[in-house]
Amino acid sequence: MPNLIKFIKQYQADVVIAVAVVLLSITAFNLGKVSVLNKGKTPITITQPVNSQQATVNGGEMIQNQKLKPSTYNLTHGSIVASKNSTSKVYHFPWCPSASKISDKNKITFASEAAAISAGYALASNCSR
Length: 129
Fold this sequence. Notes:
By secondary structure, the chain is of the alpha+beta class. The chain folds into two domains: 2-39; 69-123, no CATH class. 33% of the residues lie in helices and 15% in strands. It has three helices and six strands; from the N terminus they run ααβββββαβ. The chain has helices at 2-10, 12-39, 113-118; strands spanning 54-56, 62-64, 80-83, 90-92, 107-110, 122-123. The strands form two sheets. The protein has a four-stranded mixed β-sheet with strand order 5-3-4-6. A two-stranded antiparallel ribbon has the order 1-2. A hairpin with a 5-residue loop joins β1 (54-56) and β2 (62-64).
């Protein structure tokens, strides 16, 4: 042990440089590994719809540069859906998560939200206007 301490004191500058080179090499190697791992991942991209600057509301008027809630989009005939086998009697808009889970053979469509309400259906709790 005393010989090691004597050796380090004698070659102190060289030992510091050697330790720095080793640490730099380890860091560079690990950074290279991380960059290769990130190349295989698909980057996340956020895109806007082509028609994001203007949209029509139910009255047909044009709205520009406003954020639209789902209820302001034009609903096509039969876009309100419900399940005829449902005991809860709830309806869904096309953007609701449960709307796509209803099979075509069990699907009932309504021309409007008012028609669904008059048939005794209520809006699903996981669906917003």
